[in-house]
């Protein structure tokens, strides 16, 4: 039976534990999560284990990245199942602070990212989001001080934002993106998939199919706008309320008008019923 990871809930205890790892000159990888762990998260953990001798997984549902109208209160929290999965993967340490530990009374500092955080994608619909993400990830990086940090490519704009922040602030952390893990029908794994009804779950893979179809048409040399419009039509015809479906430069997230301006990433966000899904693929 695997040994349970050390679970730490205060910053002083975390610093002592990380210092003990560093005293052995061991490399450290961080996998930031909000819990409700699934196979996509486990793929991040496995990549972390290949990149460092010790793996720290943080589990913290970060209130500063949720708007008042969003699902902070109902976001899935599955601590026992999460810990069992991390035990099976032989994770060394779980950093599980409460809100007071992460944002003590009097907390008054925020990181306000620009660049890829203002690309007109997620930020257009969730203007609060990347400030909350950058602040909490900046804190996680300075608390754990990892050599590498692993983030999923499903949240592609987030990956670009965090990568930019780590470089701009000289945090000394190498940010590594890990490919999106999908269900057999193509739906990207997400903790929020549990919100989908049975009927919505059957419809949800349309996002992936639409991206694949538009990518195929772009690579075949079809008119750029027509290829993208075709994807949008597939999505809205399936019953989604579309926020965006765009092809962007994969590095900067700047708008493009041709795949010759690449590398190219197609990114989508849409609501199905009450559940908002995001996804992306490379072209």
Automatic annotation (TrEMBL):
Pathway: Cofactor biosynthesis; (R)-pantothenate biosynthesis; (R)-pantothenate from (R)-pantoate and beta-alanine: step 1/1. Coiled coil: none annotated. It is an enzyme of class 6 (ligase). CDD domains: PanC (cd00560). The keyword Protein biosynthesis does not apply. Keywords: ATP-binding, Cytoplasm, Ligase, Nucleotide-binding, Pantothenate biosynthesis. Beta-alanine binds at residue 65. ATP binds at residues 34-41, 152-155, 181, 189-192. Its EC number is 6.3.2.1. The active site is at residue 41. InterPro entries: Pantoate_ligase, Pantoate_ligase_C, Rossmann-like_a/b/a_fold. GO terms for cellular component: cytosol. Homodimer. The reaction proceeds by a bi uni uni bi ping pong mechanism. Catalyzes the condensation of pantoate with beta-alanine in an ATP-dependent reaction via a pantoyl-adenylate intermediate. This is Pantothenate synthetase. It comes from Bradyrhizobium retamae. The gene is panC.
